[in-house]
Amino acid sequence: MNDGRSYDVGVVGTGPAGLAAALALARPGLRVAAIGPAPSSRDTRTAALFAGSVTLLENLGVGDVCRSAGEAIYGIRIIDDMGALLRAPEVTFTAAEAGLERFGYNVPNAALVEALRIRAGEVPTLTLIDASVAEVIPGPEEAEVHLGDGRRLTVRLVVGADGRQSLCRRAAGIAARTWAYEQSALTCTFTHQRPHGGISTEFHRPAGPFTVVPSPGRSSSLVWVERPDVAARLASLEEAAFRSALEERLQGLLGAVETIGPRGVFPLSGLSADVAGRNRIALVGEAVHVIPPIGAQGLNLGLRDAACIADCVADALAAGGDIGAPGVIEAYGRMRHADIASRIWTIDLLNRSLLSSAPPVQALRGLGLHILKTLGPVRRMAIREGLGPSFITPRLMQAPVEGHGTSP
Ligand SMILES: Cc1cc2nc3c(=O)[nH]c(=O)nc-3n(C[C@H](O)[C@H](O)[C@H](O)COP(=O)(O)OP(=O)(O)OC[C@H]3O[C@@H](n4cnc5c(N)ncnc54)[C@H](O)[C@@H]3O)c2cc1C
User: Fold this and answer.
1) Of ligand 1's atoms, which has the minimum distance to the CA of residue 286?
2) For the chain, which domains are there?
3) Model-level pTM greater than 0.90?
4) 387-398 pLDDT, tens per residue?
């Protein structure tokens, strides 16, 4: 019986990556404490989640949220809107050409977190603790987790899912490289006259991408990247003025814009931790990588972290070893390195290629889109790599596993 103070795993941070990690780690019956403040304000973001992420959610017993609150994505269209004399061709990737029924689902972050929290409450070996963590002290045999309310827990493994300002990252002694972009993303969901047809559209513009992603019915979610001052001004516009600015950008794609939901503004930045774990602490989600919202990579990467740490811990358990031992953390770091580094590099390059007005950079970008449009094999490879790395698929992201959901 648990005394309420010692657990096998302490997951710090109960955003989507942390909750998914907690549920994945509780599957083999480990005693898991997931610690973080309950969400206070509603996240206006949605996340396009690809097939591997959807399979993970199915395996954790929350796959229904994709269908009940989200919308299927069948295609991804890229439109060159750089205003250059020579316009690059429009490129559309379809799920069918990659042999898939759909790319995945676009799911509101708030609905996803709520579904994960409900599921966490149903798993007897998982304890959800609504509190902040004030300190993490790693030791040779276990780690101490000090909560803001004075309680202390001991755990064998800490999973740091506490976002970009991660206290766990500092406690592990892991340095991170951070950088800022002169860009902010304005987000909201809106309804419109014409159907989106399940196609997500990304306009490539000099200030950054302007993306509309299918949401249920005739609605879409918007990620509009602009210079920070422009994004702030757009966010403060009266609804009618914002509607006409949005319609102008959409160039008639979705017909008249009707109702517009609450707007949010997210300054864009990047972060790359030197390693994904050390000293009994494994980092997942934005604690280890932050990338701009281009190509819908951030949370898909965070969910792969969650599934991979679960694999490493399951392997350690099967071998009868210590789940927080250096070898386990190192294996996790090796498993994540190439995936994280390649996504950070590609998305940064793509974003900077939009911001650069240098003719050779624009010519290369245009050439890239030409190649993607005309060469089927290259396009199919780009689709496969965009959906997830070909070199690694954690077990919980493979076909639905037996038991379907976290076993009680
Ligand atoms: C505009 C925009 C659009 C995006 N679209 C997509 C998309 O389409 N697809 C995609 O895959 N990704 C997308 N992303 C990225 C995605 O939103 C993030 O990767 C994801 O939300 C990060 O989740 P997380 O759980 O790692 O971090 P967070 O959601 O930041 O969670 C961290 C949690 O840790 C808690 N915490 C912090 N400190 C402590 C502490 N000391 N003690 C306890 N708890 C603590 C916080 O309260 C929070 O709950 C987008 C991002 C943006 C900005």
Assistant:
1) 26
2) 6-178+269-397 (3.50.50.60)
3) yes
4) 667 677 899 998
